[in-house]
Design goal:
Number of helices: 3
Strand order of the largest sheet: 3-5-4-6-8-7
Structural class: alpha+beta
Radius of gyration: 21 Å
Largest sheet: 6 strands, antiparallel
Shape: globular
Order of helices and strands: HEEEEEEHEHEE
Number of strands: 9
């Protein structure tokens, strides 16, 4: 009888451990959670919809967590607002690497596609050392903030900011993904 009870206890434990993301709970150690993603658009007349502190995207540094919002201004142009939020709560993106595009101060701005390709390689090279897992095995995607033509020419901006975000819509990061193995 003792062996039968022990076997039942082990079977129940195995079933409980096997459950997880199949039930829609969480992925990994509750780092990526099912959540309503930050709204891409918002009503600019109601700033209470924004989470965090508004910042210039070029001011983001490695270790910052942030959200991005897009709205249509009065002239019907799309505008973007980036807000810094704490990494210890729900957020859409986490910056993990800051580097500089190799160019002299007087070099003309390269095409945005050239900047993006260079940034993608730089971000990919640093991904595994930040997350602790190869990119192809990860549940995360990478992105980059690159200098705009205006910041390149007016401010001498050459910074590239690499960030990660969940690879599925409807998910948000709940904490930092540094060394998470996700």
């Amino acid at each position: 009888m003792r062996w039968f009870l022990l076997g039942c206890a082990l079977a129940l434990t195995a079933v409980a451990c096997a459950r997880g993301s199949a039930d829609g709970e969480t992925i990994g150690p509750e780092i990526i959670v099912e959540a309503e993603p930050t709204s891409d658009t918002f009503d600019a007349s109601d700033p209470e919809q924004l989470s965090g502190v508004s910042t210039n995207p070029s001011n983001i540094t490695a270790g910052d967590c942030f959200n991005e919002y897009v709205y249509q201004d009065r002239a019907d142009f799309l505008q973007q607002i980036t807000t810094l939020v704490g990494c210890d709560g729900p957020h859409d993106r986490e910056a993990y690497f800051l580097t500089e595009y190799p160019a002299d101060d007087d070099d003309p701005a390269p095409a945005e596609e050239t900047l993006r390709r260079w940034a993608e390689r730089a971000c990919l090279d640093e991904f595994e050392s930040f997350v602790g897992l190869e990119y192809v095995l990860s549940k995360l995607e990478i992105g980059a903030i690159v200098p705009s033509f205006e910041t390149w020419t007016d401010e001498g901006d050459r910074n590239v900011i690499c960030f990660v975000f969940p690879d599925e819509d409807g998910r948000r990061l709940r904490t930092s993904v540094a060394d998470s193995g996700l």
